[in-house]
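Incident log entry.

Two folding requests arrived from the same account within the same minute. Monitoring flagged them as a possible duplicate submission, but the sequences differ. Recording both here for audit purposes.

Request one:
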Amino acid sequence: FKAAYTSDIAKMSDDDKSRLSYFLQKNGQGQVETFAELTSYLLGNHRWAAGEMVQNCPASFKCVKEKLGL
């Protein structure tokens, strides 16, 4: 997941990074929050942040789905 997350973040625009800064926290917390948000999307949470993370982090989303066996 870490490699997918790092790859996705590197491709984000500065505007997206600004809007989604909560999910870009340092010391691993951003990764934890991203994994949780993407998991919540798979469980039916389609609020703004979850949808934005799915769009901006496709590799991370794919990894989460694989890890959950979906």
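Request two (distinct sequence, not a duplicate):
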Amino acid sequence: ALARGPHLLGDQFSAADLYLTMICRWTRNTPKPAMTYPNIKRCVDLVIARPAWQRMMKTQGITWSGEAAS
């Protein structure tokens, strides 16, 4: 579905996009983080650009720019 729309399930943003973003964050320290896949990165970039996502991350004190850990 990522190849057919900007979001995981197509044209509409959904909770699946949020879940995908959390999973991608969890993979940041793995040998091949999920964000290395272009279609996944494109979808996650849309989520982390959302003001509500940014507010939630700030409220929780979590920093993550969408990149793999260095």
